[in-house]
Amino acid sequence: MEVLKAQYNQQIALAGHQVSLSAAQLEAAKIQSETGVIESPMEGMLANFDLQPGQIITAGMAIGTIVNTAYFKVEFSVSEFEIPYLTVGDNMELYIDAYPDAVFNAWVYYLSPVPSAGRTYKVKGYISDIQDIPLVSGMSAEVGVNLSEDTAQ
């Protein structure tokens, strides 16, 4: 009988510890939910946000995509006849379809050394003057680059 009483006392003590542990975990969860802040490593716009209310997240877990709005890039292709006239650093003008009255300045930072399908070459540039116009990633644009035969290689 004493053995059973000792076992019950141990079970009661264990249950008491589990209650204390659960109470501490509940308090920690309350604090985290009240003070939980998600910070991005850069300024930008949140896109593809995949978090649901009440969902538990962990450090390093992807919950969306941050689009860096401090620097916008433009990518386009040129024919094999135009690529010899382009150089890294060339200035461009962008005419974004959504803002027909605005002209954006940009510069070439990359020229593909290898053609893609159809014998076109990828060109990449940075928009150097965002202005105060709310650009959104994926907008279509026309690109103007002054080609000169003097720069042909």
Give the arrangement of secondary structure elements.
Layout (H helix, E strand, L loop, with lengths): L1 H34 L9 E3 L17 E3 L4 E8 L11 E6 L7 E8 L8 E8 L13 E5 L8
Antiparallel strand pairs: 1-2, 3-6, 4-5, 4-7, 5-6
Your description of this structure?
It is a single chain. It is built from one helix and seven strands. It is α+β, with helices and mostly antiparallel strands. A five-stranded antiparallel β-sheet has the order 3-6-5-4-7, with no helix packed on it. A two-stranded antiparallel ribbon has the order 1-2.
Descriptors:
elongated, two-stranded antiparallel sheet, alpha+beta, 153 residues, 27% strand, single chain, 1 helix
Give a short summary of the structure.
Helices cover 22% and strands 27% of the residues.
- Number of DSSP helical runs: 1
**Biggest sheet overview:** 5 strands, antiparallel
Label the overall shape. elongated
What is the H/E order?
HEEEEEEE
List the uncertain runs: none
Which value, in Å, is the CA radius of gyration? 29 Å
- What is the residue-averaged pLDDT? 82
Beta strand %: 25-35%
Percent of residues in helical segments? 10-25%
The computed structural class is alpha+beta
Distance from first to last alpha carbon: 100 Å
Query: Could you tell me the number of beta strands?
Result: 7
The largest beta-sheet arranges its strands as 3-6-5-4-7
